[in-house]
Amino acid sequence: MSFPSDDELMAGPNALEPHLIGHDWPEDFRAGFACLVGRPNAGKSTLTNALVGQKVAITSGRPQTTRHTVRGVVHREHGQLVLVDTPGLHRPRTLLGQRLNDLVRETLAEVDVIVFCLPADEKIGPGDRFIARELTQQRTPVIAVATKADKVSRADLAAHLLDIQALGEWAEIVPVSAVRGEQVDVLTDLLLARMPLSPPLYPSGELTDEPENVMIAELVREAALEGVRDELPHSLAVVVEEVTERPREKGDQRPPLLDVRVDIYVERDSQKAIVIGRGGSRLREVGTRARHGIEALLGARVYLDLHVRVAKDWQRDPKLLQRLGF
Ligand SMILES: Nc1nc2c(ncn2[C@@H]2O[C@H](COP(=O)(O)OP(=O)(O)OP(=O)(O)O)[C@@H](O)[C@H]2O)c(=O)[nH]1
C-alpha cells in the first residue's frame, strides 16, 4: 500500500493523529497492512485476536457481515501491523457472494501481505484450492499458516505442511496455534518484515477502530447463530438501528444505561421461527447472551431490544443488500 504524502498525513480521513505528527519513530520502523483469508472456520478471527493480543474481533461465525474493516493493530517497538479482516473467500453462488468476492479481491490487492489460513485438523479441500488459485492471481506476498496446529500430532502437522507447500507458491509456511499462543510471535515477525518502511499508521495503544455498531451487530449475530449454524448458514443479517443513552438522575453513580435496538434479518418465515424459538424462548437466550457481550464491550448497562424480520431473498436483492450495509 503506497504511503500518503505529507499533505495527506495532515488532513483527510487518513490523517495521522495530531499527537503523532512531529514525533520521532525509529528510522527502520515498518508499518503496513495484512489481511487474513481462509475458508469459514479456518481460525482467522482467533488468529487475529492472538496477533493483536486482546479480544477485539468476535470469534466464530458471521464472515458475511465483515468486509473492509480494520480488525486490530499490532504494535511493536519497530513496527506496526494493521490487520484487515476479510470475509471468507468462497465460490460465489449468490449476488452477495459475488460482491463479497470482489471486495476480497480489492483487499488482497491493497494489502502488503496476505495470511492464508489452512486448519491443520482438516484436509486441504476444494475450498482451499479455490482460494489458493485466487491468491496466485495477484502479486501480494502470501504467508501460508497451518492454523490449529495444537489439534494434530507432529507427524500429521508435517504432512499438512507438505500439502500446503504443494498447493502453491508461498513466501513462507508457518504452523501456529492461536489458542495456545504458539508461534504467534514468529508469525508476527515474518509479517512485520514484509511491511514497508513507514511511520506508524496508528497511535500506539489503539487496538481497533471498528465502529461499535459493527461489534454490537457481530455479538448479536454470533448469539443468534449459536447452535443453529447449519440451519441458518448465511441467511442472517443484523442491523443496529439505534443506540441511545437514557437520561440519568443527578448523582447516579451507576454505569450508563443504553437502549440498543437491533433488527435480525432472515430470509424465510421458517428461519424466523428458528431464531425466535418456541414461545420466544430462544430469542430471549440470544438476547441475554448478546447483551452480556455488549455490556462488556461498552462498559454500560444495556437494554437490548431485538426484532426478527423476514427480508425475502435478501442475498439476491441489491436494494436490500445496500440497506443491510453490504
Ligand atoms: N484448538 C484450536 N482451535 C482453534 C484455534 N484457532 C481457532 N480455533 C477454533 O476454531 C473455530 C473457528 O475459529 P474462528 O477463529 O472463528 O475461525 P474463522 O476463520 O474466523 O471463521 P469464520 O468467521 O467462519 O470465517 C473456533 O471454534 C475456534 O475456537 C487453535 O489454534 N487451536
Automatic annotation (TrEMBL):
Matching InterPro entries: G_ERA_dom (IPR030388), GTP-bd (IPR006073), GTPase_Era-like (IPR005662), KH_dom-like_a/b (IPR015946), KH_dom_type_2 (IPR004044), KH_sf_prok-type (IPR009019), P-loop_NTPase (IPR027417), Small_GTP-bd (IPR005225)
MF-aspect GO terms: GTP binding; GTPase activity; ribosomal small subunit binding; small ribosomal subunit rRNA binding
Region (G4): 147-150
Entry keyword set: Cell membrane, Cytoplasm, GTP-binding, Membrane, Nucleotide-binding, Ribosome biogenesis, RNA-binding, rRNA-binding
HAMAP family (UniProt xref): GTPase_Era (MF_00367)
Binding positions (GTP): 38-45, 85-89, 147-150
The keyword ATP-binding is annotated on this UniProt entry: no
Gene Ontology, cellular component aspect: cytosol; plasma membrane
Region (G3): 85-88
Region span, G2: 64-68
Residue ranges constituting the Era-type G domain according to the UniProt record: 30-200
Record keyword RNA-binding present: yes
Topology with respect to the bilayer: Peripheral membrane protein
Spans annotated as G5: 176-178
Quaternary structure, from the entry: Monomer.
Homology family: Belongs to the TRAFAC class TrmE-Era-EngA-EngB-Septin-like GTPase superfamily. Era GTPase family.
SUPFAM superfamilies, sorted: P-loop containing nucleoside triphosphate hydrolases, Prokaryotic type KH domain (KH-domain type II)
Source species: Georgenia thermotolerans
UniProt subcellular location: Cytoplasm; Cell membrane
PANTHER family named in the record: GTPASE ERA, GTPASE ERA, MITOCHONDRIAL
Residue span(s) of domain KH type-2: 228-312
Protein name: GTPase Era
GO BP, one annotated term: ribosomal small subunit assembly
CDD domains, per database record: Era (cd04163), KH-II_Era (cd22534)
A Pfam cross-reference name: MMR_HSR1
Region feature (G1): 38-45
